[in-house]
Design goal:
single chain, about 300 residues, alpha/beta, Arc Repressor Mutant, subunit A, D-Maltodextrin-Binding Protein, domain 2, 3 domains, five-stranded mixed β-sheet, 9 helices
Length: about 300
């Protein structure tokens, strides 16, 4: 390869690492915190790269952070490959070279407390050279992050994925009704969805989740009264435990009390409903990176072990 006429002077591995980190977390300050450098250092690296390419790599969103442009996403993808190859080349100096690299994973926030800690613990053993950067996101946010390639992997429910997404089933779940310990449903082995007609319902304030639950109920002829829409799963459980309504959920923690110590009951649904799949997703073209196939296999093993 003839490199005499190519200008590499304005491109450094440090700049690439800073740009990739900013793209992964969507925030210059947070990228600096994770890398242990100052925010101005990240900003200077991005400015230098954008001067080299003659066009923006990121769109600055006031108060929200940064988002890669279309061109920026292509550049970051190539930078990740370069950094990965450098890691692997550097690792050859070790007595027993290990696979090294960085992957990013977006996890649906209702699933994250139950899956992420065990996943990271197992990956630390099975792939010690792998660094996993993770974010918690809504159902929409997980798919969006994978589509925009700010995350290589996503863990989410199966509520529809585009054709360019590769889908791997982690496991399947059946929906259940959760209610307060003194609710009429609490002593029963199962309830029909139609029995939720006119019940007070606590919904997660996430469009895809809410639409899914309400669609299921309408299909069974039930029209509940939505008492509250809450941002988080634990707040939903606390509302239910305090008798403010019931909820339909696939996520059932091992703990049988809410954060404020009140008991809840989980009741099976008697309707013949299709199982909901928990998925590991990624973009098809991500398979071009050598670390992706290995990481995907180990992530699946770790998730299924739970």
């Amino acid at each position: 390869m003839d490199s005499q006429n190519q200008d590499f002077r304005s491109l450094t591995l440090r700049q690439m690492a800073y740009a990739v980190a900013a793209g992964d977390v969507g925030n210059v300050t947070e990228a600096g915190r994770r890398l242990g450098v100052s925010q101005p250092s990240i900003s200077a690296a991005l400015a230098g790269l954008e001067a080299h390419y003659g066009q923006p790599l990121f769109v600055r969103l006031p108060g929200q952070g940064v988002q890669p442009t279309g061109f920026g996403a292509d550049v970051l993808r190539q930078m990740k490959v370069i950094l990965e190859q450098v890691d692997q080349t550097s690792a050859m100096a070790r007595p027993q070279p290990t696979e090294t690299g960085v992957v990013t994973l977006a996890c649906y926030d209702a699933l994250a407390p139950y899956l992420l800690p065990g996943l990271l613990r197992r990956l630390r053993t099975s792939m010690p050279g792998l660094t996993v950067r993770f974010t918690e996101a809504s159902l929409d946010g997980v798919s969006d992050s994978v589509m925009r390639e700010t995350s290589e992997f996503g863990v989410t429910y199966d509520l529809g994925t585009p054709d360019e997404i590769v889908v791997r089933t982690v496991y399947q779940l059946q929906p259940r009704v959760i209610c307060a310990a003194d609710h009429a449903f609490a002593s029963r082995p199962s309830v029909a969805l139609s029995e939720l007609h006119d019940e007070h319902l606590i919904l997660l304030d996430q469009p895809m989740s809410a639409q899914y639950v309400l669609g299921m109920l309408r299909a069974s002829g039930a029209t509940p009264t939505v008492t509250a829409r809450v941002k988080g799963f634990e707040l939903q459980r606390a509302f239910v435990a305090n008798g403010l309504g019931v909820a339909v959920t696939h996520t059932i923690p091992h703990a049988s009390t809410s954060y404020d110590g009140l008991p809840l009951k989980s009741v099976a649904i008697s309707d013949d409903l299709p199982a909901q799949r928990v998925l590991l997703i990624r973009q098809k073209r991500q398979s071009a990176r050598a670390i992706i196939a290995r990481a995907e296999s180990e992530i699946l093993k770790a998730l299924r072990a739970d």
